[in-house]
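Reviewers of the previous submission asked for a worked example of the structure-prediction workflow described in the proposal, so we include one complete record here. The input consisted solely of the amino acid sequence. No template or homolog information was supplied to the procedure at any stage.
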Amino acid sequence: MQRFVNSLPFSGLMSPGQQPPAPGASLMSPGGGGGVPSPPAPVMQTLVPPPGAPPSQVPAGPAATAALPPSATTITPAAPKDIPLTLSARYGRDSAPVNGGVVWRIYPVRPDITGAFRPLREDRSATPNLALPPGDYVVHVAFGLASAAKTVHLRNEPVREVFDLPAGGLRIEGRVGDVRIPNGQIAFDIFRGSQFEPGDKRQVASAVATGDVVVVPEGTYHIVSNYGDSNAVVRSDIRVQPGKLTDITVTHRAAMIMLKLVSDRGGEALANTSWTVLTPGGDVIKETVGAFPRVVLAEGDYRAIARNEGRTFEREFKVITGVDGEIELLAR
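From that input alone, the workflow returned the following structure tokens.
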């Protein structure tokens, strides 16, 4: 406040009763006569006029003007206006727009004090209209497993940004012959690149269920189809094109087999039986425990070994594509 007062055009404030000295007057008493004359008696004045007297007029002029302090005023800088930002995505240059399924996130260009980038805003509409304070931001858009990001500069004018997302969709199902494999019995893993290309492949999705749509960047992928949890596995290469949904049918040559250890043909299965299924060459395909386990096996020849109460039984059998059934072993 003192700095604010010092900046005013006068150096101080005058008391209401104080009058400035007349021009040429001295603040010292005049000399002469060897003595100091006694000061005149003070004249008492009042600001209240006597009763019935007209109100006195205040003489004009600089000597009669009291200097009053100006009213204190707080000056607040105007807050910057938010800048409109419109976002949209398309499948590529001269391609159709992406009209759903996208997730937009707005990040600062610098991390916070913990070193992390935390989103300032999130929107799931196809073409969001946002308003942000002027500044620089990183805009990230995700569409399934495809994504893009760019830095956006907001100054004084509205900004419109279009993101290219060259991506397509995959929808997969499995069949045995003409029969669709039920959901829950089959799952799909998706890897980037062809299965015939050298080197390790990066997995982009796992345990994809029948009928699920997976959005991935355009390119070549190979699919690993797992029917059951043993050796019924099929690998397929596919090509994903931007803006298109590709339906894929994977055909398995396999069947579901139920194993039973019985005392008599057609009898009750014996509990607490340990099972091992092997190829003719001795490779272990499946190990399990139970009275009548079910196992999906690829077409071919096998040998089943059952162990119960210290005894071992075995039998050879054949799996035919699409022919589900049960294999009985006699505990004799």
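The helical segments are 2-6. We consider this example representative of the routine output the project will generate in years two and three.
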